[in-house]
Amino acid sequence: MQELLAKYLNYLLIERGVAQNTLEAYGRDLRRFLVFIRQKGLTQLQEATPEILIEYLIRIKNEGLSANSMNRQLAALRGFYKYLLMEKKIEQTPLANIELAKVWMRLPDTLSKEEMKVILAQPGGEKPSALRDTAMLELLYATGIRVSELVNLTMNSINWQVGFLTVMGKGNKERIVPIGKTAYDCVRVYVDNARSQLMQKKSTEVLFLNRFGGKFTRQGFWKMVIRYAKKAGLQKKVHPHTFRHSFASHLLEGGADLRIVQVMLGHADISTTQIYTHITRDRLKEIHQKYHPRG
To answer: Which of 152, 250, 274, 277 is most buried, by CB atoms within 10 Å?
Structure first.
């Protein structure tokens, strides 16, 4: 069973181009399932019946998994069994009649434009680290890119002549995102006045560097955002993805076309982007109630 799992994960990586984070999550989920069926005394995947699959799903649900995590577990199992059918390792899948758990749409956390302005102002100063932090925060908000995409940017990722960013997203799909004047200027100042000092005579094409001259990590950026949110006195929870959510909702509030926002976010399916229209409707309702004489 472990050998079949290894072949499936390799198939996802090589032939399907699945993102590394997704690959790791699927691997964890499927290894957890294999442990469960071994505990049930099974030695072959085809021995797992629909009843056993349902028992497994009930067990992990009772452990407190969210609907989204349940759906990911089920998606991983569906993909695995589909692969086993394709490779003729099994004759039928036990998942044929098991539906995805219902996911209640949860609106993502966002910052208001005023809150965003406050947190973007926090780094301040002319130290190399402050110039870098300002550039990273401004670029994240200006483009809506993922943190993994931000820390993987290189000097060649930015087209300085036209002010566009080339981003390598999930599944190694490349997209182009406009930067905007404020973020462009901040990144330019960082590159001109701070990056060479952070490099410490090393040679690298990575755009954003830590104090040791290495690539800035996702964990490091996460800590930075939390630190500046606390410094800004924001009461709500702020994390790196909050910038991406705020980018999308602010664009839509301003009248941007949903499909344009979809392209900039790198969403394969527009239904993923449509969650932000709920935020926009809520915001419009607030404005109407506040300013309309009959609100």
So the answer is: 250
